[in-house]
Amino acid sequence: MLDLDKPQRQSPVGVIVIFFKNLRKAVNFIFYFFVVQFSMNTRMLFLWIAIVVVVLLTLIYSILVYKRFVFYIEEGEFIIEKGLFNREKIAVPFERIQSVHIDQNVVQRALKVVGLKIDTAGSGTKELEIVALPDTFARSIQEYLIEKKNLRTDEGQIQEGEQNVKGRSEPLKEPIISLKAIDVLKVGLTENHLKTSLALFALINGYYWQSQDFFFTLFQDYVTEGEEFVLAKWLMVLPLLLLSLLVISIVLSVVMSFLKYHRLQFFLGLKEVVNVSGLLKRVEYQIPISKIQYLKYSSNPLRKLLGIKTLVVKQASSIASSDKQSLMIPGCKQAQLDAVVRNFFPELGQSSLLTFKANPYLKIQMVLFFSVLPSIFIGVLSLLNINFLFLAILVFVVSLPFCLKYAANMRLALNSEVMQLQKGWIFPKTEILKFYKLQSVAIKQNVFQKRRNTAHIDFYTAAGSLRMWQLDADVAAELYNYLLYKIESSNAKWM
Amino acid sequence: MESNSHIKFENSVIEMASLPQLEHSDFHKLEKDYLWLRILFVSILFLIVGSISVIFGIISNLDWWQPISVVAVIFSLVYLLENKGFAVKGYVLRQNDISFKSGLFFFAMTSVPFNRVQHIEVYQSPLARLFDLGEVKVYTAGGSSSDISIPGLKVEDAHRLKDHISKLSSTYA
Question: Which residue, of A336, A364, A455, A482, has the fewest CB within 10 Å?
């Protein structure tokens, strides 16, 4: 029987799990010693001592963290006590628990333990994680907590769950979205490689700067011989470097796509959605339908060509802005996407949508910030080198249509139950949301907007906030009143 | 575009004009003492920054009044802005929601419906204790930017407001 009345520690191997978690942070530190070692030309011995000390300190730290970490149940609350320097006691009432996940990384798999994550909703709450538990123990805690949580929440539960169910017919045995190998390949190939390779570049660059003292001592002779030569060489190497980064990024993306999305199947159940995917590790992910706050789908130019989009299911979480908490399904065809949207938002088809475009002032704002200001900045550099002037003009000419198109494409469409927010041109995205899922709304208006008589509206949900930019001020005010009226007059539970 | 017309929904009988409007005139000002609190706070800051600047000024061979006059100009601007900003701040309690507005240059008005309140607390900073002022913080599940906190209330008012909202919001829980 599960006994959690007394404070308990994790399995002893938890020390190792914590150690590896901390070691990742320590590696950067060790790297610093490498740099110092090479640049100062100290003895090799010093380096080894430094590494041993850092590793030992990490180990001691991990042991202490492990010892200080206990969890137990007391008076209807799950409690974690932890903290080395400042002691912390986190208590979660059962009814606040949203879901309990179990997961396993490589280290945990090798040690035959699992991690347990407890998810709560609401601001100002912390993520709760126990990193090392025997599998059966973790599962019994999971079952226990979910059972207790359901007992607590059932008392106050209203029929929102059933309301949702009524709209749907039978439980769907067939997945509403499923990906074949070719779809996954498409996803991998059409990943935003520019972003990935730039990220890679930044990473490499970061290490380069960290260690530049070291590199300088190595290349000192060449550098002093001819700085211009090095610069010219660098300029030749750069495109090659970027090209190879691009290739690496494409290969990586394809591999990652297969690892993550191989044979993806997305099911719509009566009370939850279920997503199964993965090549080596099949991951089954469940989200209760009541917990879903809004849907979002997006695309990019390559994907538009292939006719695929990415669906994101946004769920309520304590860490509102992070994408980790949402379910992402890339490679959806339009028909599949339409089916999902129809299922979640039957109201969309019930009455026509009223559309509001952003005020033309948005164009001026976008052009100013993303076209004019960058070109002026680059233009100033032309005092140093006249070539920058051409670059400035180029930047202006290229960015101008992007800004104008982006602003022209921004729109908010709504009927009496649902709103749909569309943004973007190259990377278009659409967000769909029922009014009763809103937590609060805000109107934002800076001095410039006041003169132009425009305002933003911010929509806050438990899965993050959305914004409609530059509405006409009177429309924004009316909409604001209407949204408040819709939230306050609805009895539907947002979760 | 329909932008200029009033919002009408085919599917609903609601006329926009009949909806409760949130007018600027409905908002209550914060306690006058809150302005004094802010001024005291800015003055303390001024004393600290001013004395540091004088020390640095003397070190770099300036007369004592040179750095302090620069700092004084900046701070008199801050005083002016505090004064103007205070006039913008306000809150209004309605049957079903509470709203707060603020921001001289970046105006923002946020409303939290009572059926979305997660919890409420009364907060008192050490300075506010001198003035017997309190701050009511209203939390929702929408993240920190969706929460509102109303400073510059008399402590007893703050507690009364908190109790009122807790009572109303608990009927939805």
Answer: A364
